[in-house]
């Protein structure tokens, strides 16, 4: 494949603080020679490790976007040794639209790696991240939340890969972040996801889910801000000791499809459990009501495993096949 078609005036090797754009050519009727401009910041001070911090992988997930926008304004070169690359709205069209996927090509950036330089805008963005930014990085953080349709118990996460050394260093970064909950994704090695794609490049990577419901959580933003500084200190990019949270990190895992519950019918979903609640296999998860035919009995759905409700649907209306909840369990040593 040809090299990336995205260009930038940013010099990744120059000391100092640069805030600019990635330019992605986008020729349409209203703008024949137009460019999609994706904001990027590089803060560099001499030689040292590189941290690549990203949010806006999905445009309707906001805590990371808020935290990284603030970090761009506050972080100065004299505070670090090495380099910090910040991409606060990676799928910029989706971020501006407040949507999970791009309104231009309906592209889900977190299902688009390693990307394609000749593909649509979303796949071109993925290709630039994979071929240009990942090779520069020693540490990568992809900041997510539940978006418009889901709510999460806030957690930091890693995706385990085939490289035991990367897994061990990822586990260190996960614990040092300081979140109360952490998920180790052992089963999901789908290389279309950014964290899995980055580990194939040899990068120590963490993911996350911080809240959701299309809102901005005060406590989650604070957790992200504290955790990012912890990661930079852990990587020896910033000086100082990590500031851990009030509780030790609880390591958890999400299994296979048995941990997920899906709406059996279209209608109005009534959940029976709250986030953080522990349930047993066979417990009812909720039921779908039919307000257009109120005499019809609701259709229930059930948990197929035991565990803690770490995610639940935010929207009340569902279509058949919508995820309405999923579980996590404590990780066995």
In a few lines, what is going on in this structure?
The protein has 333 residues and is of the alpha+beta class. It has helices at residues 63-74, 92-97, 121-133, 164-177, 194-200, 218-234, and strands spanning 7-8, 16-25, 35-45, 50-55, 82-87, 139-143, 150-152, 155-159, 181-185, 204-209, 250-253, 260-262, 267-271, 278-279, 284-289, 299-302, 307-313, 317-318, 323-330.
Rough outline? globular
CATH class of the largest domain reads Alpha Beta
Give the number of domains.
2
Mean pLDDT, as a whole number?
A: 96
CATH-defined architecture of the largest domain: 3-Layer(aba) Sandwich
Straight-line distance between termini: 43 Å
Radius of gyration: 20 Å
- Summarize the main sheet: 15 strands, mixed
Estimated share of beta-strand residues: 25-35%
Low-confidence stretches: none
Structural class: alpha+beta
Total DSSP E strands: 19
CATH fold type of the largest domain? Aminopeptidase
The helical percent reads 10-25%
**Count of DSSP helices?**
6
- In N-to-C order, the SSE pattern is EEEEHEHHEEEHEHEHEEEEEEEEE
CATH superfamily of the largest domain: Zn peptidases
